[in-house]
Amino acid sequence: MAHSSTHVQNMLDKQELDNFVYWSSKCLMEDEIDVARYFERFQTLSDPLLFYQCMSKRECDMLFWKGFHVNNRTALLPYLLDKCPNQQPGATLSFRELFDLAYPFLACKRLTTEAEAKAKAETEAVWQVVPLMRNVQNENLSIHDEAYSALYRQCIHIIPELAEVLPKPELSHEPVQNAPVQSTSHNCQAPSAPSSPARTPSSPIPELLTSPTDLVTSALDAPVDPSPAPPPASDFIDHTPSTTPPSLPTWS
Q1: Is 202:143 a contact under the CB 8 Å cutoff?
Q2: Which residues have C-beta within 8 Å of that of residue 57, sequence separation ≥ 6?
Q3: First to last CA, the chain
Q4: In the chain, domain spans
Q5: Which of 49, 77, 82, 148 could be 54's S-S partner, Cβ–Cβ 3.0 to 4.6 Å?
Q6: What is the DSSP string of 176-226?
């Protein structure tokens, strides 16, 4: 009776694994996190079936490869053949070896996509900022002008890194003088205009802005390490087959 119950449970587990692989193949894996989750779940479902010999290792490897989206398989295949020219995924290449190769591949793909998106965003930002900086040059603004302060705020809002290279605005606030007391005499005379204090000539914007495009590009330059992290298979996955049968849920 116990043997029959175990057999029925193994059949149910095999059906669950098949369903999981089927639905996984419908979802595109975007990065290394997706393939790591797929591998962990696949191993959890397949280990009992391998232990009780309800599924061969070759069948297990084939199922793991089938669980990848068709676009993932198309992108991965040339890379796998380059790394392992004498092994075929789903045939001679085990599913653990396949995971160890797919993980860094998808990590590199994610980093490349992020770098391209960042480069596109920076290019769009440059096209927004350069006209503003040309306005500074064309109008011969100084750091004491309100117009320069407004353009400065717009520039650093679009590209915050420009705050490190653009001269900061220095608005000079002139003190407000009290109006002179008018005489109560009938002979009213027009009050004399208050004399404004001498203002120190403001210095123009330094030659730093002679090439707005170069300035924006230099502000955006930052070294990026494109190397992906190694696959975590050796850390959180035990590659040694278990010597004791895994626990199975009670069949009622």
Answers
A1: yes
A2: 50, 94
A3: 12
A4: 2-112
A5: 49
A6: PPPPPPPP-SSS--PPPPPPPPP-PPPPBPPGGGS-HHHHHHHHH------
The one-letter code for the residue type at 169 is P
**Tokens read off for 144:** 């004491």
Q: What is the DSSP letter of 55?
A: S
φ, ψ dihedrals at 56, nearest 5°:
-80, 160
9 residue type, one letter: Q
Residue 75 is encoded by which pair of tokens?
A: 């992108």
Quote the CA–CA distance of 137 and 120 in Å, as a whole number.
26
Q: How would you write the pLDDT of the chain (252 residues) with one tens digit per residue?
A: 556 677 778 889 999 999 999 999 999 999 999 999 999 999 999 999 999 999 999 999 999 999 999 999 999 999 999 999 988 888 889 999 999 999 999 999 999 999 999 999 888 888 888 887 787 777 777 888 888 888 888 888 888 888 787 888 887 665 545 545 554 444 545 555 555 445 445 445 544 444 555 655 665 665 555 555 566 544 444 444 444 444 444 444
Token pair, residue 197, equals 């204090």
Containing 129, the helix (H) or strand (E) segment is: helix 95-138
- Which residues make beta-bridge pairs with 5? none
